[in-house]
Design a protein that fits this description.
Protein name: TraR/DksA family transcriptional regulator
Radius of gyration: 19 Å
Number of helices: 4
Distance between the termini: 20 Å
Keywords: Metal-binding, Zinc, Zinc-finger
Zinc finger (dksA C4-type): 90-114
InterPro entries: DnaK_N, Znf_DskA_TraR
Domain Zinc finger DksA/TraR C4-type: 85-120
Length: 130
């Protein structure tokens, strides 16, 4: 059973829905841009600078899209936790995650203390996994 009120859960679910819609739009846009770039380059021969710039832009788009897809997976996992009643419970210490933290980061898996420990143990991780 969650320590969060129905109103808080509703607000958090709404935040997840809004972020999901935003991410889906970004992923769709990135896929369309990649398809447009491929079709626009058919038969075009560029110099080495053009080719390097295109590869760099493609790589950046790929990383951004991968990050967005990863966040979409985290959103779906948060919804599953809401449905099974484990949402808002730290996966490490099993204590409630503060509502303030969840409002700032609705996909959070850990309380602030455990998240700090996790980041110390996993320093190469660039993005807060929750």
């Amino acid at each position: 059973m969650s320590h969060l009120s129905d109103a808080q859960l509703h607000q958090l679910r709404k935040k997840l829905d809004e972020r999901e819609a935003e991410l889906q739009s970004q992923v769709r846009g990135a896929r369309e841009a990649a398809a447009d770039q491929v079709s626009g380059q058919a038969g075009v021969v560029g110099d080495q600078g053009d080719n390097a710039t295109d590869r760099l832009q493609h790589g950046i788009r790929h990383v951004e899209m991968s990050r967005d897809i990863e966040e979409l997976v985290e959103i779906e996992a948060a919804r599953r936790r809401m449905d099974d009643g484990s949402y808002g419970q730290c996966v490490d210490c099993h204590q409630p995650i503060e509502a303030r933290r969840l409002l700032a980061h609705p996909t959070a898996l850990r309380c602030a203390l455990c998240q700090g420990r996790y980041e110390q143990m996993h320093p190469s991780r660039l993005r807060d996994p929750g």
